[in-house]
Amino acid sequence: MAILALPLGSTAAARANPPPSAATSTVFQVPVRFVVGCLGSTFPCWNLPPLMTMSPSATAGVPGVVTFATERAADWTYCVDVTVNWWNLSTGAAGTTALRIAERDYTRPIAPEDWCRYAPATAVTGSGTVVAIADVETVVPYGLWGYKMLVSPGLGTFQVP
User: Fold this and answer.
1) Is the pLDDT reported for residue 48 higher than 70?
2) Residues with Cβ < 8 Å from 77, sequence gap 6 or more?
3) How far is the C-alpha of 28 from the C-alpha of 142, rounded, in Å?
4) Element (H, E) at 138
5) Is 14 helix (H, G, I), strand (E, B) or coil?
């Protein structure tokens, strides 16, 4: 005859110290779209500027904290900073953060995938439903010869534990 012994209090300990929840990432449902091009008065523009698309994401793992990130645009000729404005619909908290171009290591050749690499940005949003809008600044002229214009901002909604 086998006797099964269960340790007392293990259920209470498990409830008191639940395992940390796994981080969940949400790609913004609407990507950021913008164009960057040259001004024809300074240099001849041989083609239309490409429509660039970036898809920011939000990763929520630690309660009340979100990490925003993005991959480079498919046409990475131009590297632009991305601003993320967020609003917690459950608490009313709001804020702004920026996804900036990560520092480049000029001591070695730069691989194409590292040219427009973005540093993630963390925001303390609080728990609840968060909506975020991502965009790039419209600048005319951009540098000495061009322009940068937002076509449509990105939009994402997600739950933060």
Assistant:
1) yes
2) 36, 50
3) 27
4) none
5) helix
